[in-house]
User: Fold these one by one.
Assistant:
Number 1:
Amino acid sequence: MPVDQYEDGFIIYMPSGHMAVHLMRTNRPAYRGAPSPEQALGALHTYLSYFGPFSVHEEEGFIVHHRIGNLNPGQVDTDAQRFFELSDTTLTLRPPMRMIDGREVQSALTWERLN
């Protein structure tokens, strides 16, 4: 089973050196009236968003998102390193390897350019 799988999203890089990302799982249930605590928690677990300046380390093949705003308050003012592969129409971002259940895991997100 994929870890942290998101199906929909946008990532935006601006000439000013700022970026923003929004990721969402599909089929999120809509609230009917005021959400219960469980529904609100479920909404938070199916959405990811942050923004801030970015810096490119082209020779080393990575970019750093300097997150000054984040849906997760514990990740405000933290950096997110992403190794990248760039073509004319796609951008693939990979965070550093991490250990899950005693195994090294490498995830990736591939973004397609909108015209």
Number 2:
Amino acid sequence: MSMQLVLASGSPRRKELLAYLGVDFVVRIPQVDESVRSREIPELYVQRVASAKAAAIGGDVVLGADTCVVLDGQIYGKPSDLEHAEAMLWELSGKVHTVITGITVQTKDLLLCEVVTTRVEFVSLDQSLVDWYLNLDESSDKAGAYALQGAGSSLVKAIDGSHSNVIGLPLVETATLLTQAGVTLRSSPDSNKL
């Protein structure tokens, strides 16, 4: 009997990335508190939230992930509104920030965790570019208020590290953890049609 893989995330980007690995999975959306604790280190924050997401969902093999943007030690989650998104974009403008994702794979007998870090350099923004991007309504549910897989890629000058990590699920590390948990990866053309 094969084990069912559960993706503990409502993110369409994570669903799409996980499908690239050729695994069958179901999506269940966990209800967890994603607020940052006082003086919490970013790497520990994403790992704690990823593990909480996996623990909140039952299943044979559960994959939880959480991503944040970090600049000068400050954690940037999802913006609360457009004004907040604009403030985030201006703070990232012309600087190098870090995108950190925590991944947890949990089974009845196993708990596997990994943290992946990618450095991202933003272009220097001007008001017309910020206004254009905000009007696309792409920033509302994205850590750091931008989406690399969308028009937000035009805001990024360089990436040092995992590209899929910046989108929300580092595929190399995810594949490794799933394999360690006994999930078979395959490349079937009709697996998980989106």
Number 3:
Amino acid sequence: MGRAVTPRAGTIVVNLGDAMQVWTNDNYRAAVHRVMPMAQQTRYSTPYFYNPRNDAMLEPIPGLTQGQPRFSSFSWRDYIKGRVDDNFTDLGEDDIQIDKYRISA
């Protein structure tokens, strides 16, 4: 589970996504997405999304990781389609998460 990031003056927070978590074999973890209202202070947020190509196959990159892979290979198209389908059609299931592709220990 993610941790809250306390805002500090003069800093920038960068949230990494699911692809980065897979590529680094969990060395960097994707942020848990949530939106919290800022009632006591001002915050500036600039989202920028850079996704893999639709036909890209995601898997841990051997040169960036150590140990056994923690994720099986999967296509970005299949993953993002599962996320979008449930967001717009509510399939009655929990939203697809990156852990769907986690290799059991």
Number 4:
Amino acid sequence: MDELNRKKGWELLPLLEKKEISAVELIQACLSEIERTGKKLNSFITVLADSALEKAREVDVTRSKGRPVGKLAGVPVAVKDIVCTKGVRTTCGSRMLENFVPPYDATVIQKLKEADAVIIGKTNMDEFAMGSSTENSAFQQTKNPHDLERVPGGSSGANRRPLQR
């Protein structure tokens, strides 16, 4: 299953479509990797294991019955924690919004859901995306999976400079 976690979404989709892997197997592999690396990398603020597995099961059943599925059916997606997701805590990396649960989905979430993508969680980020290293996340600092002494890049983790001690 480790090899699945190294593939890009566009590489996974044909495997799902040909039923070489199931959506449930794929999501279980992703969740296992999140569990294995979670405390070391701090990349997720919220993991949606139950709803992700439920959606994966739904996709597998629909596909097994020969019914049409969305263009991203079964593909795991992690969403930056600044994107409103109905019924899912959305903190924007801020303690001020630590318990905020939006009553609606942002357009991108609506589109992902329409495409049957599987949202596996909300990723850590600098507070309100105002930074470049997650050193300003209210919750935790994300680490680079290739070098724990560096940050990963972008407002979800920064430019590859060494972490400040």
